[in-house]
Amino acid sequence: xxxxxxxxxxxxxxxxxxxxxxxxxxxxxxxxxxxxxxxxxxxxxxxxxxxxxxxxxxxxxxxxxxxxxxxxxxxxxxxxxxxxxxxxxxxxxxxxxxxxxxxxxxxxxxxxxxxxxxxxxxxxxxxxxx
Length: 130
Prior knowledge:
With 130 residues, the chain is an alpha/beta fold. Helix content is 49%, strand content 22%. It contains six helices and four strands. Strands 1, 2, 3 and 4 form a four-stranded mixed β-sheet that branches. Strand 2 (42-54) and strand 3 form a beta hairpin. It starts with a helix and ends with a helix. The mean pLDDT is 85.
């Protein structure tokens, strides 16, 4: 709470919350959303990470955990659901090696998901700033 209060003079102050589809993570993020509401932080939206596994050979996405927890949470909380990002070994490798996913793996299933989420956030910026 002290950090939120210290950052208030540097408005705008928003939160982007990320969950995985599993119930434990969704529960944790539900508490984060409650924290945001109590502290007056506007929530930009919810992103569901690790939403399926993108096969590095065929790019088929398999739901190895579950799916939809982040979307349901956003619906219940009345905040935007920005999208789901699959687990992608290429994304992991790219980030760990300091490479640019957009340049090296544009066909990665994570690429359009991340692009769509970023676009939704950027498209919402004028409304968030005012």
